[in-house]
Amino acid sequence: MDMKRDYYEDVQLFSSGVVVFWFAALILCLALFPLFVKNYYVYMANYMAINIIVAVGLNLLVGYTGQISLGHAGFFAIGAYGTVVFMAKAHLPFLLALPAGGLVAALFGFLLGIPALRLEGPYLSIATLGFGLTITQVIGRVELFGGRQGLHTPPLTIGPWHLDSDRDFYYLLMVITVILVLAARNLIKTKVGRAFIAIRDADIAAETMGVNLTYYKTLAFAVSAFYAGIAGGLYAFVLRFIEPEMFGLMMSILFLGMVVVGGLGSIFGGIAGACLLSWLDLELRNILSIPYLGQWLELLSKDYFSITGVSNIQFIVYGLIMVLIMLFEPLGIYGIWIRTKIYWRTWPF
Amino acid sequence: MLEFIQTITSGIAVGSSYALMGLAMVLVYKTSEVVNFAQGEMALVVSFFTYMVLENYGFPFYVAFPSALVFAAFLGFFLEFAVLRRAKEPNILGMIIITIGLEMILMGFVSWKFGADPKTMPFPMSPYDSVEIGGVFMSSLEVLTFVVALSVMAILFLFLKYSKLGVAMKATQQNNMAARLMGIRTNRILMVTWGISSVVGGLAGLLISPTTMQPYMMWDPMLKGFAGAVMGGMTSLPGSVFGAYLIGIIENLFGLYVSIEFKSVVAFTIIVLVLCVRPSGLFARHYVKKV
Question: Cα distance from A39 to chain B (closest Cα, Å)?
């Protein structure tokens, strides 16, 4: 049923006509989505799309290549600032500035990838974490980047179109997201992707089989950083304002959380984790206005906790999700999906 | 010259609290290969527990501090028993994710309970009166931190070398399976390790809380302690202490001579540079993996 009979079957992008059909249906839904919903949900979809790009990129690094990164907010910040500065100071058009910002992030990813060649486990995590913290500090001190005050994004025009509402931006964002996700899926199916997976499973064995570790590890960092950079550049235009404080350690942890919750080593997992956590992020920001639960939490906070710290419940929720997923379903949402599928395929046995 | 010595002295003073955090993380990493990102937040919970006991229930210091350490030990036992032991397929990444998750849960609870505004910890010693030693000033709290860090290190050294439990901990770390075959209950050893490291970290938290007390206070010491431990090699106790002091001193010297603005991030830049040259830290033997 899932047997691959030849090489081309293994590398093709869509495995059957059914998949093509569902993919087309998904694209159609995405295209019609903003016509039927309130503005807030369009904003939410934009936010999700950005996190999807980061999570898919980070999954290439963490899930497929097996290198941990606690500094992805740094690449995200580089992309955001790069894009805005290229547009505002160098007057590049958006469609050039965005890849340029992504490429700057990729360059930094490549540079971080060099020391990462010899590091693993706790050593790699502290190195990437330090990188993330350093980047935001440096950005906060440079006049060109607006220092601590942050930067406002310039108005967004592509050719004859002015994209000044969330709905206009939605279509641009969706096109970029779909392209990047398909590109990631394609990458995994090529020689490069197989090299990544070989490095994850046994790097020394991969090296003896002829995989160039230096090249592929730095490439994994660079590609992952490129994804984060592109997402950062888009994020700047969703918020219309960026400041260094936004790109803290918490953001890196959240990105890593999305990948882990969704499922390490699967594109679908990255998408699902990003959707779940960004939905939670937006919903839990004003937790007291959730019906029933909000009132109960308000009473609880007044009696036993403090009402000023009630927004910190979101950290508890994230933490619980991460711990529980790791304890009970190490493959994340993707693992749950696989198990459900197998259950129904063999039902009633 | 005096300014230089003064800077080094305050570097050592800061380094002492980093060293305690680093020691705590190394203890856990040595026995179970888990990088405990929740260490700082465990210390945070301990110091807010002490605050509650002192401020809300009005117990005297000589009751509050010992009970805080006991509480710290039980917190460590509990987290290991209830969470870490339940992990299905423990690998390094999974364990890092679990401890980060725990960190977020603990921090969320503390800041939900106490709000984000800073508190003042009642402490028998004011952080502002200072001692002068040959023209160099140190606050008495810093002296206390230094003394505590050194004595904790000495106690841990003696404990690991001479006590039965310490030897069992070493055996567990070196070869879990062989230790179990020799009749050591390795699960229980891991639990005890978590308890001990939680107490060591909790001491750091208690010594930091008089100067600053808010839910984010342990981030910086924890990361710097971790950085120091990594610099020292993550598996050697003296190495981690040395690394932590080195980071404290370099940080202060950098603040004095180069730029005060980048003082807090220089530690991480140094870490990356050190790791480029010696990927397993300064003191650990480089471990070559076999396929």
Answer: 31
Half-sphere exposure at residue A230, Cβ-oriented, CA atoms within 13 angstroms:
26
CATH 1.10.3470 fits B2-277, yes or no: yes
How far from each other are the two terminal CA atoms of chain B, in whole angstroms? 53
The conformational region for residue A265 under phi > 0 = left, psi -120 to 50 = alpha, else beta, is left
Q: Are B245 and B12 in contact (CB under 8 A)?
A: yes
Q: How many CB atoms are located within 10 Å of the residue A111 CB? A: 15
Residue of A nearest to B263 (CA): A137
Which residues on chain A are in Cβ contact (under 8 Å) with B280? 123
H/E segment holding residue A140 = helix A121-141
For residue B4, with 0-12 CB atoms within 10 Å meaning exposed, 13-18 middle and 19 or more buried, which class applies? exposed
Task: Give dist(CA A75, CA A108) in Å, integer.
Answer: 8
Alpha-carbon distance of B227 to B204, in angstroms, equals 16
Sign of CA dihedral B184, B185, B190, B196: negative
A323 touches chain B (CB under 8 A): yes
- The predicted-structure confidence for A232-282, as pLDDT tens digits, reads as follows 999 998 888 888 888 888 899 999 999 999 988 889 999 999 999 999 988
Write down the pTM of the prediction.
Answer: 0.90
Strands A157-158, A161-162: pairing is antiparallel
- The DSSP output letter for B139 is E
Q: Which among B116, B268, B291 has the least Cβ separation from residue A134?
A: B268
pLDDT at residue number B287: 60
Cβ contact, residue pair B223, A204, below 8 Å = no
Query: Number of Cβ pairs closer than 8 Å across A and B?
Result: 161
CA pseudo-torsion sign A180, A181, A186, A192: positive
**Which of B25, B104, B270, B276 to mutate to probe the A interface, most A CBs <10 Å?**
B104
A316–B105: do the CB atoms touch at under 8 Å?
yes
B142-186 pLDDT, tens digit each: 888 889 999 999 999 899 889 999 899 888 888 888 999 999 998
Alpha carbon distance B228, B266 (integer Å) = 12
Q: Where are the alpha helices (DSSP H) in chain B?
A: 2-32, 39-51, 61-82, 92-114, 140-162, 164-174, 176-181, 186-208, 219-232, 237-257, 266-277
Residue A168 CA from chain centroid, whole number: 22
Domain range A35-345, CATH class:
mainly alpha
User: Residue ranges of the domains in chain A?
Assistant: 35-345
